[in-house]
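Field reference: "sequence" (input) and "structure" (output). Example, TonB-dependent receptor:
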Amino acid sequence: MRLPARKLLATSMGLYLPMAASAVEGQPAGEENLLAAIKVEVEQMKTAETTRAKLEREHALTPGGVTLVEAEDLRERSVVSLGDMLRYVPGMWTATGSTGDGTFISSRGSNLDAVAYDGNGMKLMIDGLPVTAADGNNHNSFIDPLAARYAVVARGANAMTYGASTLGGAINFITPTARTTPNEVYLSAGSHGTVQNSVTGGAVAGDFDGLVTVEQRSYDGFRGHQEQQRSGVYANTGWQISDRIENRLYLTYVDNDQELPGSLSQAQFDEDPYQANPNNIPGNFLYNVEKWRVANRTEWALSDTSDLVVGFSFEDQSLYHPIVENPFFSLLIDNDQTTFGTTVRYDKKLGNHDLLLGLNYGETRVKGGNYQHSGGVRGALSTKVDNKADNLEIFAMDHWHFAERWTLVYGAQAVTGTREVSNTDVASGVERNPKEDYDAINPRVGVIYQLADRSELFANVSKLYEAPTLYQLEDDVQANNETLDPMQGVVGEVGTRGSAPFGQASQWNWEVSVYYAQIEDEILSIDDPNASGTSLSTNIENTIHAGVEALLGASFALGSNAQRIEPVVSLTWNDFTFDNDPIYGDNQLPVAPEFFIKGEVIYRHGNGFFAGPTFDIVDDRFGDFANNKDIEGYELVGARAGVARDNWEIYLEGRNLTDEVYVANVSVSDDETVNPVSIQPGEPRSVYAGVRFDF
């Protein structure tokens, strides 16, 4: 978000590269080590600039809301969750409540059907390869935001560049390599027993390079029964087969064990907002996930005007999850989920056309069962689970530069997939087997008008489409072999983005999007009358999702010593409603507030020192479909300071300095007067510190 600083960096890189090359050519032969070091540094900068240039071009050719997040911006503050990483991305409502770093993510009103559990509605990728399961579910998906170099957040149908047409969009995490990042040690600690450490080391040897990051996190929590232990290994190795072909192998292992404090009633929250739910401690509710992932990606520069990318990924996730225990019902989920994915992308520049052809295919299998339990110890098998899903996306897009300042963007996605649930009741032998094929053609058309060198206007009309997940079919309110309908809709969007000078040595940048979507058959959760604290999935005939997303930033020069003031403000206004529903009329959809504002104002000195306040302003929201439960909004004040130098950085961050008690997240109910809403508290006053060393 510090656009001026990045511009300066890019300029300095452009100046340094020829200087470095001259130094290499002019140095005596006896200084081989120095020459080798310079060559490696030059290669690293060229590679980094190429990656960023590609992302910036992709950004500029998307006629809708897209935000690029850089790891450089995350090093100055505490980042333990995706919510921290996405803090300033407009349109993204994130909340961390029950779990240690499990983050509820909603983009443009997605995922309101399964709060803090399944995490559908957004496609997650790492280096263009899928992390999201083939059915669209992100359950068990743990992504370390500090293990990424960039994150591209494409909201809504703007994610069709990645083959997605979901309501929420997609996030593509770009990992670093030994050619783009230094060796690094990162140490951080803070309130609630938080300790987070990582070590990154790599090497480049001719056409080969390799990088490994080992991370560990421990957390006591700010609530009872909230301890967490997480460790992970992230590795990749590359082979520059030729000047035009590069192959890269990725390996990931994550082991995450965490206790679940659960949601609270309003009375429990008023008594002690940081207590665990009284049922969760004797029930020993847990969320333990172990996963490993292997992926491979090959990129060919077929010519100066065409590129081909082919990749695959395989992921295995094991889940042990005691989650319900009461006198009438107990549930422990113990299953193994495997997901295979592959992608093919072909880019071709043909005259005034930039063509993109793509294919994504995924298969997911979930095997295991639902068990009875006592105190978190697995008991008898109650339901045998063997669920399957596959999904094929074929998409084509053209960026036609038909006039000097105009670009027409048009294309379509064809999607076909199968969902098959096999749940066998052990006691009766009865099998529920809802199975359905889902198919759709999703067109998209947009236009971009270049206002100036670094600013543009855009507009688009796109079709949205999202098939139900396996979890949603398992919990179908119909409780038979009938299936849910897919969510479909049409969205229109207009906006602008860019940067412009402000005075002699200052500038500002902006992103603004306004969208309106009419949705049919949105899948939402309703109360299960036969199992307290659980929900069932159903289609809602018509809903509306509309909003305004704005990100404003600036860098103002103060005079000598390269002193600057850099404010950032992210603003989101939401209007998510039922549309003439027979029960709820035009009520507001719950969970997401009508508006929220997040920002900071940072002072920077030329010696690397920085400091300034942060703030959050969150409006009221509803906790139930009937709009009888009003969740009060809140205001948070924080601050951060530190020193950033070329090869080291240190920061100190305070959050919620006024120690405000507030609700971070809710578990939705139909009607508060019939089934009270459960709530989760937000983080109390907290302080974190961290240090980074490059070597």
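The radius of gyration is 25 Å.
The CA atoms of residues 553 and 568 lie 4 Å apart.
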